[in-house]
Amino acid sequence: MDKTLHIVGGGMAGSEAAWQAARMGVNVVIHEMRPQVGTFAHRTGDLAEMVCSNSFRSDDDEQNAVGLLHWEMRKAGGLIMEMADAHRLPAGGALAVDRDPFARAVTDRLRAHPNVSVETGEITDLPDDGQWIFATGPLTSEKLGQSIARETGSTALAFFDAIAPIVYFDTIDMDKAWMQSRYDKGDTEEERTAYLNCPMDRDQYEAFIDALLAAEKTEFHEGETAQYFDGCLPIEVMAERGRETLRHGPMKPVGLTNPHQPDVKAHAVVQLRRDNALGTLYNIVGFQTKMKYGAQTSVFKMIPGLENAAFARLGGIHRNTFLNSPTLLDAQMRLRARPNIRFAGQITGVEGYVESAAMGLLAGRLAAAELLGKDVPAPPQDSAMGALIHHITGGAEAKTFQPMNVNFGLFRPVDGLKGGRRGRRDRYKAYTDRAKAAWSDWLAQCPLDESEPV
């Protein structure tokens, strides 16, 4: 029996899957179509390239579900988290990374592993034999998407993912903007000043909303429908839901004090987060958009402090295809109709870099175990990874299935704890304590062999 594992897609999920399987002693071939076949969003041929935000979100492993997922991936020797930690940028309580060095480091580590090889070229069909993981992400190529749709007997679901713009720091007016993390969160001064803030008064905010609503937007192709993921809504879509929506979302003014006008409370605040280690680039937090490029520059320059801003990248929008996983995948992430094929990452219906990498970690371990003839117990449902994989492979309602971030709503309740907001802190700590114990026990049953290739 061929002991080679083929992985299609070198994003977060594919890279992590390859790393885990290779460390278990399986030969791995990563099939990555870039740079031979490009996409609208990618700029390089590097593995694990970050195309949207540069944030892995909260790193709090006691009170936040995504922070717990960070902890579990670190505990499992995850490559994505190791490289994220190595290329970390100040971001308050969040884990943000210097995206280009991060991707290059992931690429270098995988290419240097004796069990891993990388082949450039597009895979357009589902193979009949061999062990495969498809981790093609939100930009699955048209031909492969058609092949998947034919095999599953259903039309792939789709929503539209939006990209936030990036501004050159030296074009921001710091006489109007200031550096501060919300509520001064962070253990160091660098963390407490990780965000750049641009304040708006009521009139400026109302004028901004008017311009946002009136701006020319990207039109969808005939037959496409915009099913946005709520965690990544374009700002103009949020504005259409109500004029105050942005002020209670990415533009909320709470936890901030303007040192230029300490006695004046801002009506709204636009935040920017460092996007590279040099501090020369900042992305506008939560400002994913489908405005056309000309409209973006004029609307965003209405933001105080950004009147003369130069943009390293404007926002964009792209289609994100995902499977109806509760119907199509088994508990081992295998395609029910073709058990030699697994899916991992965003195409399975998880949302976010961390969730994608986590599902890659599980897929890589499960596929390698199968190739090696090892019995591996199911990931514990009380862990963050177990809760997430349980949701996408059967816990979710198939008729209404939509992409999901990890969250404590996916966890089984802990008996005897108070509900509601007042009991939340104790409840979340109980979830994370239970998850860490369950995950540690599972890893002890499924150790990495670090063996030579078979």
TrEMBL record:
Keywords: Cytoplasm, FAD, Flavoprotein, Methyltransferase, NAD, NADP, Transferase, tRNA processing
Compartments where found: Cytoplasm
Residue ranges of every copy of the MnmG N-terminal domain listed in the record: 5-374
UniProt key word Repeat: no
Binding site for FAD: 9-14
Family matches, as Pfam families: GIDA
A GO MF term: flavin adenine dinucleotide binding
Domain of life: Bacteria
Family annotation (NCBIfam families): gid_trmFO, PRK05335.1
Name of the protein described by the UniProt record: Methylenetetrahydrofolate--tRNA-(uracil-5-)-methyltransferase TrmFO
Organism: Roseovarius indicus
Taxonomic lineage of the native organism: Bacteria, Pseudomonadati, Pseudomonadota, Alphaproteobacteria, Rhodobacterales
